[in-house]
Design a protein that fits this description.
Elements: H1 2-13, E1 22-35, E2 51-62, E3 66-70, E4 85-87, E5 92-95, H2 100-106, E6 114-118, H3 124-127, E7 137-141, H4 142-149, E8 161-165, E9 169-170, E10 177-181, E11 190-196, E12 200-204, H5 212-217, H6 227-244, E13 247-249, H7 254-259
Length: 268
Amino acid sequence: MRSVLLAVILLVVAPTARAGQIDRLYVIDCGWAHTADQSRWSPGINVGVPIDLSDNCYLIHHSSEGYLLFDTGISDRVAALPDGFTAPALNQTWHRSQTLAAALATLRVKPADVKYLAISHVHPDHIGNADQFPDATLVMQKAEWEYGLKQPLKPFSPEQKLELLEGDKDLFDDGSVTALSTPGHTPGHQSLLVHLPKTGYVVLSGDAVHFQSNWDNRTVPGFNTDKDQSSASMEKIAHILDEKHAQLWINHDKPSSDARRHAPEFYE
C-alpha cells in the first residue's frame, strides 16, 4: 500500500515531460526600412515626416523543447541589394545587413535545428524567410492561416507541419511561451508572451503596435483590417503588462530596438 501511495505522490508532484524554461532569447536584426511618411501608421499625425523602422526576429531556446523562432523578417534576398528594395506603392525602402541564415550560423544554429516557427502574421516583412524552415512546426492562429490562403501569393508550403491556434495558448504547457491572440492588424495576428528567469516577462508585439508613440496614444493605422479589434488587442496587452510586470518590445520601433542587446548576445 505504501508503494502505491508513493507512486501516486510522485505522479502528482513530478513535472510534465515538456516542463522547462527559456534559457536564451536572441534578438536578431532581420532588416530595417526607411519611409518618407510616418502618418501611414498614425493617420493625420506626422504627415510627411520620415521614419526608420526596425524589423526583428526572435530566436528562443527552451531547455527541453529546443529552438522556437518568432517571425523571419524581410526576405534574405534584400541583403544582396546595395541600395535596398523599394516598394513604390508603400513608399518604403527595405534593407538587410545580413541574411537570417548567416545570423543563425553565427549562433551555430542550422535551419533544421529550429523546431517551431511561430508567425505573428503573413505580411512580407514577417514571413520573408519562412520557406527556410520546412521541418519546423508552423505555429499560428487559424484565422491568420485562412487569411494567408486568400492572398495572391500563398505564403506557406502545403506540406508544412501545422499547429493552428484559436486564441491564446501556452505553447509548452509550462508558462514559458504563450501565444497571444491579438487580431486587428490582420484577422489572425498574434503576439508572444515570453517568461525569462532573469529578465522576467516580455511581450513581443509583432505588429499589434508599431511605434512607441502609437502605443502611448493607442493609435491604430488606417490600413489595419479591424480598428476595434486593434484597440482591444492593445488593451489586452496593457492588461498583461500590468498583471505580469512585463516589458513590451515593439518590433518596428527602431530607437528601442537599437537599445536592446542583439545576437550573439542574448537575454536570460
